Automatic annotation (TrEMBL):
Family that this chain belongs to: Belongs to the MnmA/TRMU family.
Chain segments carrying region Interaction with target base in tRNA: 97-99
Protein name: tRNA-specific 2-thiouridylase MnmA
Domain of life assignment: Bacteria
Function: Catalyzes the 2-thiolation of uridine at the wobble position (U34) of tRNA, leading to the formation of s(2)U34.
PANTHER family: MITOCHONDRIAL TRNA-SPECIFIC 2-THIOURIDYLASE 1, TRNA 5-METHYLAMINOMETHYL-2-THIOURIDYLATE -METHYLTRANSFERASE
Catalytic-site annotation from UniProt: 102 (nucleophile), 209 (cysteine persulfide intermediate)
Keyword Transport attributed: no
Length: 371
């Protein structure tokens, strides 16, 4: 009997994942990760961080399924790997994705390592994604012997979470199960009722991974203090003030405090001089907000690195429709570790720090971070 440690959050998705695996004959244990709590945070947390209720829900589901439940405390590691990254990126003027970093450093690293240490064959999560393993040349030793693991989109286009899993490796995929990736959300809800799960009607979680729904600016202020700076138009004319360039992101419209009835969008940030450049809607498509190209760093390929140029599709943000693009090696002087992406259509608000994920139809090829 194969042993699976299921990452259970208290939500309906991971609960149904556990129920399905037990029904399929696996030995299942529910694992709850305590990664963040208001008590562990040095500052003030004005957010709904319901970890205690989530753990109550996990225990209730495990009792309902007749499986054991264990809690793992990764608060120190989460602070070092995810929260510190979050603040460092904003302080540098970039727009990070903490959910991708959490998957990379916590769920599919620490949690997987703990599972293997405890003698489990797999971990499982409630992600809407799929894994397909195919034969591969025996000289390729990155995955299991004679197998190549492909990461695929979840079948529910509205819930597909493959974007957040773009950093997974062959080794991680060989030890991971996504039991609900072939289902739509409505089917998952129906299964939760069928299994009699006590959290069948629980709403989906929102906000930053494990922290919850938080006011980003108020959260950042605890480490990055406010500093009044200028808002300028493309000609350099001062038209307003802001509270700190690091609190804003490229393409942002709301929260600028500019009157006049015209919608303004942020087109550039200068965190060193604390200046934000904005443009009004009538000129936004011409100056600053749309681009057909981007240079990426920290490139990761789930399978073998491709031959360039590569024609594929990509997303620069979650739930964006796939965009046709071509990938090229970096230009001279851009560094050897990155790639250049050329989009067929102009992309709105390409912001440094965002993750770009590449696709071949429903297969995730890999991704990188906008430099």
């Amino acid at each position: 009997m194969k042993r699976v440690l299921v990452a259970m959050s208290g939500g309906v998705d991971s609960s149904v994942a556990a129920a399905l695996l037990k029904k399929q004959g696996y030995f299942v244990l529910g694992g709850f990760m305590k990664n963040f709590s208001p008590e562990s945070w040095e500052g003030v947390l004005d957010a709904d961080c319901p970890w205690e209720q989530d753990f109550v829900d996990v225990r209730a589901v495990c009792e309902n399924l007749g499986i054991e439940c264990r809690s793992f405390n990764f608060e120190r590691e989460y602070k070092e790997k995810v929260i510190e990254y979050f603040f460092a990126e904003y302080a540098a003027g970039r727009t990070p994705n903490p959910d991708i970093m959490c998957n990379k450093e916590i769920k599919f690293k620490l949690f997987l390592e703990k599972a293997i240490e405890l003698g489990f064959d797999y971990i499982a999560t409630g992600h809407y994604a799929r894994i397909r393993n195919t034969p591969q040349p025996p000289l390729n030793l990155r995955g299991g012997a004679g197998e190549l693991y492909q990461l695929l989109k979840g079948l529910d286009p509205k819930k597909d979470q493959s974007y957040f899993l773009c950093t997974l490796t062959q080794e991680q995929l060989s030890k991971t199960l996504f039991p609900i990736g072939h289902l739509r959300k409505i089917e998952v809800r129906e299964l939760a009722k069928k299994f009699g799960l006590p959290n069948a009607k629980k709403k989906d979680s929102q906000g930053i991974c494990f922290i919850g729904h938080v006011n980003i600016r108020e959260f950042l202020k605890q480490r990055i203090p406010e500093r009044v700076g200028e808002i300028v138009d493309p000609s350099g004319r001062v038209i307003g003030q802001h509270r700190g360039a690091w609190y804003y992101t490229i393409g942002q419209r709301h929260g600028l405090g500019l009157g006049g009835g015209e919608p303004y969008y942020i087109t550039k940030k200068d965190v060193i001089n604390n200046v934000i450049t904005v443009n009004n809607y009538s000129l936004s498509e011409i100056e600053g907000l749309h681009s057909k190209s981007a240079t990426l760093r920290d490139i990761h390929w789930i399978n073998e690195p491709p031959q360039f140029p590569l024609s594929c599709k990509a997303k620069i943000r979650y739930q964006q429709p796939d965009q046709i693009c071509s990938i090229f090696p970096p230009l001279e002087g851009e560094g050897k570790e990155g790639v250049r992406v050329q989009f067929k259509s102009p992309q709105f608000a390409i912001a440094p720090g965002q993750s770009v994920v590449f696709y071949d139809h429903d297969q995730v090829l890999g991704g990188g971070i906008i430099a």
